[in-house]
Design goal:
Shape: globular
Oligomer: single chain
Distance between the termini: 32 Å
Strand content: 5-15%
Strand order of the largest sheet: 1-2-3-7-6
Number of strands: 7
Number of domains: 1
Length: 319
């Protein structure tokens, strides 16, 4: 992705994703959002940005209910993102999709989905279409650790491996499927090892390190583009907040949360870029100010946009 081609841009988009989610959380508290804003990906920014940065223009991806980061990393117009959260007609899905169902085919996002694991067969079908047409595109398919125990995970990976489809599956392992830890839900704790059942490569990566995520995902994307089939990546990351707005995460210890926050992907990468002489603390401050201006403008745009007309309720519906 051209807009994610430099270390500075990787950092900028991680910061933008976090500040966007903090902003919509604030707007929810002011009753500005339509419906609710359930699932934040704060803490997972390096995974969102790293996997998307491995794509090229024209590639596709699916998303899931914790997918704001994917859309922003793709280069989405944050004003339209905010308008969708506000339930306004100017949003990406005309205010009808909300937090969990944002899509933009032109950007390559085939859609987020509120059903756990539902994006996996959609992405696999898109990869099959690419192979059928004989084009050189790749599909990126991220999903949570909870989705690996859905039947469609096994069916899709088997099908993709059998037909050597151009797809990269990414387990965003944030350690918990709602309140159930991986330790309690999977007989294999190293989730990437499930790849061996389908005869495809599997690899784990530090999901809090954006450059490592990009490196591993880029290799998998190139493998898929060259006709060598799918890869399963496990990106080990963490969500700082509970599963949803109503979840205070009593099932986690404060010690565990603090341990993961010590690995914060944004602070970690800011330190690296300062140490390398790529950025200064003043540069980062300027970046932060720019992001706040972008988000303030997004809120103004969303708040001044009209709601969809009630007569449009059955438009844009596909069965």
């Amino acid at each position: 992705m051209r807009h994610l081609s430099t270390p500075e841009s990787l950092l900028f988009y991680m910061m933008l994703i976090r500040e966007f989610e903090l902003k919509i959380s604030e707007m929810f508290a002011y009753s500005k959002l339509a419906g609710t804003m359930f699932h934040l990906s704060i803490g997972q920014e390096a995974t969102s940005v790293g996997i998307v940065a491995a794509l090229e223009e024209g590639d596709y991806m699916t998303s899931h209910h914790r997918g704001h980061g994917h859309m922003i990393a793709l280069g989405a117009d944050v004003r339209l993102m905010m308008a969708e959260m506000f339930g306004r007609k100017t949003g990406y899905c005309k205010g009808k999709g909300g937090s969990m169902h944002i899509a933009d085919i032109e950007l390559g996002n085939l859609g987020a989905n509120g059903i756990v694991g539902a994006g996996i067969p959609i992405a696999t079908g898109a990869a099959y279409a690419i192979k059928y047409r004989g084009t050189k595109q790749v599909v990126l398919c991220p999903f949570g650790d909870g989705a690996i125990n859905e039947g469609v995970f096994h069916e899709s990976l088997n099908f993709a491996a059998l037909h050597k489809l151009p797809i990269v599956y990414v387990i965003e392992n944030n350690q918990y499927a709602m309140s159930t830890s991986v330790e309690r839900s999977s007989s294999i704790k190293e989730l990437y090892k499930r790849a061996c059942a389908y005869g495809i490569p599997g690899e784990a990566v530090d999901g809090m390190d954006v450059e490592e995520v990009l490196r591993v995902t880029k290799a998998a994307v190139e493998r898929a583009r060259n006709g060598n089939g799918p890869t399963l990546i496990e990106s080990k990351t963490y969500r700082y907040y509970g599963h949803s707005r109503t979840d205070s995460a009593p099932y986690r210890t404060k010690e565990e949360e603090e341990m993961w926050k010590q690995k914060d992907p944004i602070k970690q990468y800011q330190r690296k870029l300062i140490e390398r002489g790529v950025l200064t603390t003043e540069d980062i401050k300027t970046m932060q100010e720019r992001i706040q201006k972008i988000l303030d403008e997004a809120v103004r745009f969303a708040d001044s946009s009209p709601y969809p007309d009630s007569q449009e309720i059955f438009e844009d519906i596909y069965a």
